[in-house]
From TrEMBL, chain A:
<keyword id="KW-0812">Transmembrane</keyword>
<feature type="transmembrane region" description="Helical">
    <location>
        <begin position="120"/>
        <end position="139"/>
    </location>
</feature>
<feature type="transmembrane region" description="Helical">
    <location>
        <begin position="179"/>
        <end position="198"/>
    </location>
</feature>
<feature type="transmembrane region" description="Helical">
    <location>
        <begin position="30"/>
        <end position="53"/>
    </location>
</feature>
<feature type="transmembrane region" description="Helical">
    <location>
        <begin position="65"/>
        <end position="83"/>
    </location>
</feature>
<keyword id="KW-0472">Membrane</keyword>
<protein>
    <recommendedName>
        <fullName>ABC transporter permease</fullName>
    </recommendedName>
</protein>
<dbReference type="InterPro" id="IPR010390">
    <property type="entry name" value="ABC-2_transporter-like"/>
</dbReference>
<keyword id="KW-1133">Transmembrane helix</keyword>
TrEMBL record, chain B:
<dbReference type="InterPro" id="IPR010390">
    <property type="entry name" value="ABC-2_transporter-like"/>
</dbReference>
<protein>
    <recommendedName>
        <fullName>ABC transporter permease</fullName>
    </recommendedName>
</protein>
<feature type="transmembrane region" description="Helical">
    <location>
        <begin position="63"/>
        <end position="86"/>
    </location>
</feature>
<keyword id="KW-0812">Transmembrane</keyword>
<keyword id="KW-0472">Membrane</keyword>
<feature type="transmembrane region" description="Helical">
    <location>
        <begin position="231"/>
        <end position="248"/>
    </location>
</feature>
<feature type="transmembrane region" description="Helical">
    <location>
        <begin position="144"/>
        <end position="168"/>
    </location>
</feature>
<feature type="transmembrane region" description="Helical">
    <location>
        <begin position="200"/>
        <end position="219"/>
    </location>
</feature>
<dbReference type="Pfam" id="PF06182">
    <property type="entry name" value="ABC2_membrane_6"/>
</dbReference>
Length: 272, 260
């Protein structure tokens, strides 16, 4: 109990400091207020043209599709993460050493930083864009189930963090992990469902997504938001989908811990 | 003029030499960019695979628009891609004076010294996709090719103008690494057939921020889909580039040298 209280105090302190630190650059976050709606507008017109006389595409109606893109954009603001870049920088410069001297696990520190950073994102990216989507584009942004959507977004938040942290850990072997980061971002951008719902992919690719982390980051929380999840011919209730997402997060955490332990054996503190 | 050409040639040579020094990084970066380009039209492919389409446009016509867009982006990025990041870095560190002290036009110096070899993959990816989709278009008359070249150059001028405007913005919006996202979001409109957008968006994308010229209009010229009045849009493109140069030079005069 005392340990939990202690962790909570550290979380509040680190998240609070990160929030204040990034508040100085809040206008950077506010770029999303222009960029998000412009991307959304383009998607809106693309899909309106593509649907034409079709009532359903890939089993999704046009209003559902618009809601889907609204949800993926907003969820993206809540779960955005650069733990990979940060960890890579710390390893490359040798500054990771300082975390061995602190009475806190670096992964926890990075997670608390992300909580602070995304709290700022909630205020300066998520909320303004949500209001723009509702009042300017007239999109119904009410989730099918508030509690399950919040839980799913929280799991996506953790999933994105653990995956990115694992990518960052590759720096212990590669030192410069830019290449692997770019490759991952490229694949993730496509298979997370942020560009197009995964229902449009060939059946075998949809099935493959159950065994990869990408769909649990954007597609699944967005589908939980819309209240209907199906992929690769498998239809799941919202509860089942969130349950599967929780299992995926747990497995990813285990994998991350394994890689972290191996990575620590590689650490030389020299940098490059 | 001869001196400027000589400097540019030397800078290109240095950039290629630098890329050769870290050739593994160069090869991997180029391959990733190339793969990114192959995957970029994936959304279009999946849309057509689902049995629907952009009204009035075949799959290969849309791919042609996206190929021209990628080629234009690659070409612009090769020459102007590094201007934003270099300017931003100098402004943040307060070291832009280093450039102002050179016996050359500062804008030219930055353009020349930031020749971006990383963008070769982007350009080649666009060329590959272009060849693939233009073959499907059948025989194209010489006149259409000439029209295409003219409009392609105008589209590249728009991208250059956008790069300069974004870089100019970094003089006041110090250290904001997300400035480029502003341009990227607007450029998204140029990747698809313009008629799918409302008239107001079409007008803006042709006359005010002429992103329609980056992919849509040059591809339409190749397909024989442009009308005489569409060529009027070349004028705003050139004005856009001129505005980019003017704004950048104006912002140099406002440079304070304090960093941020």
């Amino acid at each position: 109990m005392n340990s939990l209280k202690y962790q909570w105090q550290i979380c509040r302190a680190v998240a609070g400091v990160t929030y204040k630190e990034w508040s100085a650059y809040r206008t950077h976050s506010m770029v999303s207020i222009i960029v998000g709606p412009v991307y959304f507008m383009v998607q809106y017109f693309i899909w309106t043209a593509v649907y034409g006389d079709h009532s359903l595409l890939g089993g999704i109606s046009l209003p559902q599709m618009i809601r889907y893109f609204g949800a993926t954009a907003l969820i993206g603001y809540l779960i955005m993460d650069f733990a990979d870049w940060n960890l890579s920088m710390l390893v490359r410069t040798g500054k990771f050493l300082t975390f061995h001297l602190r009475p806190i696990h670096h992964r926890s520190f990075a997670l608390f930083q992300k909580i602070g950073h995304r709290s700022l994102g909630f205020l300066f990216e998520f909320l303004p864009c949500l209001l723009i989507f509702i009042f300017i584009f007239g999109v119904d942004m009410r989730p099918a189930s508030f509690p399950w959507t919040i839980l799913s977004v929280l799991l996506a938040f953790m999933m994105n963090f653990y995956v990115n942290y694992t990518i960052g850990l590759t720096s212990f072997w590669l030192v410069q992990s830019n290449g692997i980061r770019s490759a991952f971002m490229l694949v993730s951008g496509i298979f997370s469902g942020a560009l197009i719902p995964l229902d449009f992919f060939p059946h075998w690719l949809q099935v493959t997504q159950f065994f990869l982390p990408f769909q649990y980051i954007a597609y699944m929380p967005a589908m939980v938001f819309t209240g209907h999840y199906s992929l690769g011919g498998l239809e799941l209730s919202i509860q089942q989908a969130v349950g599967m997402q929780a299992v995926a997060v747990f497995i990813t955490f285990g994998f991350n811990e394994l890689v972290r332990r191996l990575a620590m054996k590689q650490f030389t503190a020299v940098g490059s | 003029m001869k001196r400027y050409l000589e400097v540019f040639k030397q800078c290109m040579y240095s950039a290629i030499q630098a890329a050769a020094a870290y050739r593994m990084n160069f090869i991997i970066s180029s391959l990733i960019t190339l793969a990114g380009n192959i995957l970029f039209p994936l959304v279009t492919l999946l849309i057509y695979r689902a049995g629907t389409s952009f009204p009035g446009w075949t799959l290969y016509e849309v791919l042609l628009i996206q190929a021209v867009f990628t080629m234009s982006s690659g070409l612009s990025s090769l020459i102007f891609g590094g201007v934003l990041w270099t300017t931003m870095s100098h402004i943040r560190e307060g070291s832009f004076e280093v450039i102002l002290l050179k016996p050359l036009n500062p804008l030219f110096f930055i353009v020349a010294t930031t020749f971006s070899t990383d963008s070769i993959g982007l350009f080649l990816g666009g060329v590959a996709l272009f060849i693939f989709s233009v073959i499907q278009a059948g025989a194209i008359p010489l006149l259409f090719w000439l029209q295409f070249i003219g409009l392609f150059i105008a589209g590249t001028a728009v991208l250059a103008g956008l790069s300069l405007m974004m870089a100019a913005m970094s003089f006041k919006w110090v250290g904001n690494s997300r400035i480029s996202e502003l341009a990227d979001s607007v450029l998204n409109i140029g990747k698809y057939p313009l008629p799918i957008f409302p008239k107001a968006v079409q007008a803006v994308a042709t006359m005010i921020i002429p992103v329609g010229m980056v992919g849509f209009l040059p591809a339409s010229a190749l397909l024989g889909r442009v009308q005489a009045r569409d060529f009027i849009a070349v004028l705003p493109c050139l004005l856009f580039l001129a505005a980019g140069v003017w704004v950048y030079r104006h912002m140099i005069r406002l440079y304070e040298g304090v960093g941020g």
